[in-house]
Specification:
By secondary structure, this protein is mostly beta strands. Helix content is about 10%, strand content about 35%. A hairpin with a 5-residue loop joins strand 5 and strand 6. The protein is globular and about 55 Å long. The chain starts with a helix and ends in a 13-residue tail after the last helix.
């Protein structure tokens, strides 16, 4: 049997010792660069449409982190597109890029955005928001 199939078989049998040449699989929650929180934060989104016409809209976050967030908005955007976000409560602004767009109900896509540099101050989370971590982020330690 090939080494691949042996490693695969061993992986499904926890009583067998792990192959030292194969790194252990990381839990799914550890793949993220920072913790995520559920937070409905009103924002303004500014960008340019497909014909380079500028747009802006009032939107809100669904999930936020130091590295970006998941926004609920109606404007059609594409992965890689640059946007400017303004936190409506604080007027703080951050440039970001669209990382992923997920279709949702009622023509409101969920848009994952990523900041160029991590920031801890843009979202201005309350203690209540910080208590509402997204599943999979509980007990996770921050990288130093």
């Amino acid at each position: 049997m090939s080494k691949f199939f042996e490693a695969l078989a061993r992986r499904h049998r926890p009583d067998q010792p792990a192959d030292p040449g194969v790194p252990p699989a990381r839990p799914k929650s550890e793949r993220r660069r920072s913790r995520r929180w559920k937070a409905l934060i009103p924002i303004f989104v500014y960008g340019h449409g497909s014909g380079l016409e500028p747009f802006h809209e009032e939107a809100y976050s669904a999930v936020v982190s130091e590295t970006g967030g998941l926004l609920v908005m109606t404007a059609a955007v594409q992965p890689g597109q640059s946007l400017l976000l303004t936190n409506r409560a604080t007027q703080a602004q951050r440039k970001c890029r669209v990382a992923h767009v997920v279709a949702r109900e009622r023509d409101q896509p969920a848009v994952a955005v990523e900041f160029a540099e991590p920031t801890g101050d843009f979202w201005r989370l309350t203690e209540r928001n910080k208590a509402a971590r997204v599943n999979g982020d509980e007990g996770r330690r921050r990288a130093s």
